[in-house]
Amino acid sequence: MPFVSDNAASVHPNIWEAMRAADNPDMPYDGDRQSAILDERFSELFGRECAALWVATGTAANCLALGTLVQPHGGVVCHREAHVEVDEGGAPGFYLHGAKLMLADGNSAKLKPSDIAAVVEPIRDDVHQVQPHAISITQASEYGCSYNAQELSELGAYANMRGLGIHMDGARFANAVAFLDCAPAEAVGPCDTLSFGFIKNGGLGSEAVILFDPARADEVRYRRKRAGHLQCKGRYLAAQILAMLDGDLWLENARSANAAAAEIAGACGERLIHPVEANEIFMRCTAAERDSLRAQDFEFYDWGDDAARFVTAWNTPQEHAVALAKAIAAL
After folding, report:
1. Are residues 260 and 239 in the same domain?
2. Which phi-psi region, left, alpha or beta, contains residue 178 (left: φ > 0; alpha: ψ -120 to 50)?
3. Could you tell me the strand order of the sheet in which 207-211 lies?
4. Domain, as residue range, for 191
5. pLDDT per residue as tens digits for the range 96-122
């Protein structure tokens, strides 16, 4: 029973249907009818004007979005466990032409203004030190915790005071919106850019770069091409995104994944390392206990020597979640 990663989950049938429906001649690159309406659809979703561009990976989405906020001589403040730091193979430095990631600490991979201040306030305002240009946060965080509206507002106030842009890595943005039970605009708050994730949530190979300053869109279009991410038949990427937006499938899928995670979390008790506010569970357990779970056909990642990570997906069967919960309770 798979709990390794939501990246390993099946593609939702609606995505395949949308791609088949798009399999007719249309303009190449992003000149097709599907790509042309992305701005409108996302502007409706967020209740404000924005530009939306497809890319094939979350790493590309993060880096292209950050490129609108950071100059090569500047820095991005992020959590030291952030995906952009730990799991993107140095791509931010590559895409940002040497801009520095400035690492901060915070509970559950989230950042507060005081966490960011601890990094940026000691920096002298002179050419000998890298100056912070932006903040990057993850919604939901790498440890499955969500920023609420108040937390985002506080971050926005600090960023405004310091003249910093804010980027949001939204690989699991849908899961955060589902947990917070709020409008998407509330879950993105004051952010300037958002990497809106779909692949972990039932998609195939398309993510969206959302720019809340549409005037920056052409800048990203040129960089997307230069980075090798302007696909010739872009309509297939746009079709995937539109299929997820139709009927709020993205939100329905996230709610399903979150419900499975909540079922498992209920059996973990004091073993939980972080609150479960999306679709990831981090649990303390010994090597022997992990062996016992694997012997019962549960697949998951070890998380260091004394913990495990379980990730649910949009199509995790309820009986699998219940079975894992019972197995954990019996440890």
Report:
1. no
2. alpha
3. 51-55, 207-211, 193-196, 165-170, 131-138, 74-79, 100-104
4. 11-248
5. 999 999 999 999 999 999 999 999 999
Q: Residue 260 and residue 319: Cα distance in Å, rounded?
A: 9
Burial (0-12, 13-18, 19+ Cβ within 10 Å), 226: exposed
Query: Could you tell me if 30 and 176 lie in one domain?
Result: yes
**Torsions phi, psi of 79, nearest 5?**
-70, 145
Instruction: Render pLDDT for 225-245 as a digit per residue (tens, 0 to 9).
Output: 999 999 999 999 999 999 999
In a domain, 129, yes or no: yes
Number of domains in the chain: 2
173 contacts: CB under 8 Å, gap ≥ 6? 139, 140, 184, 187, 188, 194, 196, 197
Give pLDDT, residue 289: 97
In whole angstroms, what separates CA 130 from the centre of its chain? 27
What confidence score (pLDDT) does residue 260 get?
A: 98
Is the pTM value of this prediction over 0.70? Answer: yes
Q: How far apart are CA 198 and CA 207, in angstroms?
A: 6
